[in-house]
Design a protein that fits this description.
Elements: H1 5-16, E1 33-38, E2 44-49, H2 60-66, E3 73-77, H3 86-97, E4 102-106, H4 118-127, E5 131-135, H5 136-142, H6 148-156, E6 162-166, E7 172-175, E8 179-182, E9 189-190
Parallel strand pairs: 3-4, 4-5, 5-6
Antiparallel strand pairs: 1-2, 6-7, 7-8, 8-9
Helix pairs in contact: 2-3
Length: 191
């Protein structure tokens, strides 16, 4: 978390919301910025300002040292798995927690920031993930020309037991290896 004005504001918002900040690693690097633009169909497009910012300042050693013993759930994804050294740090935290905490993963594919080795890292993180959340756009990049539910099941074969497929203004699907269902509380259909 940056010590700049944005970072201090974010820190205060987290404190106000009762978030435990024991695992925060502070840096003097500027805060990473993301701008979201939502189109007329409700689909968001993002611009990231990440170079030379706090997003790329977390090492494996600092992340593991800051990790509390009592973590019940971890959510990871997006830029955290594309920028080094933070990508290696996030992967190390996932590996450390996989057998004792629920791991949720949102790859949130941003092709313009993905570098060499991303697919291999994606596979390693999926192997330690319990829930994967993907959008139709993510799947179009990962599995072009594959029906979306089938693509989610391909991800489930790599480790997760539950997939959440977001479909923009068309809602979301819960996908397992054998069934899918719409909306909260909906019964899954299939075998």
């Amino acid at each position: 978390m940056s010590e700049d004005r944005f970072g201090e504001r974010l820190t205060q918002l987290l404190i106000d919301d009762g978030v435990d900040l024991r695992a925060v690693v502070r840096t003097t690097d500027p805060t990473t910025l993301a701008l979201a633009e939502v189109d007329d169909e409700g689909v968001a497009r993002y611009r990231f300002y990440e170079r030379g910012t706090s997003a790329s300042g977390l090492s494996i050693e600092a992340a593991l040292a800051a990790l509390p013993d009592d973590v019940d759930m971890l959510h990871v994804g997006t830029l955290g798995l594309t920028l080094e050294p933070v990508a290696a740090a996030v992967e190390a935290v996932v590996e450390r927690l996989a057998d004792r905490a629920l791991i949720a993963f949102d790859p949130n594919i941003r092709p313009w920031v993905i570098g060499d080795g991303y697919r291999e890292r994606l596979d390693r993180v999926l192997a330690n993930t319990h829930v994967v959340k993907v959008s139709q756009e993510d799947l179009d990049w990962l599995y072009p020309d594959t029906p979306h539910v089938e693509a989610v099941r391909s991800l489930l074969e790599r480790g997760p037991t539950l997939g959440l497929l977001t479909r923009g203004p068309n809602g979301a699907l819960v996908v397992t290896r054998t069934a899918e269902g719409r909306g909260a509380g909906a019964a899954c259909q299939g075998g």
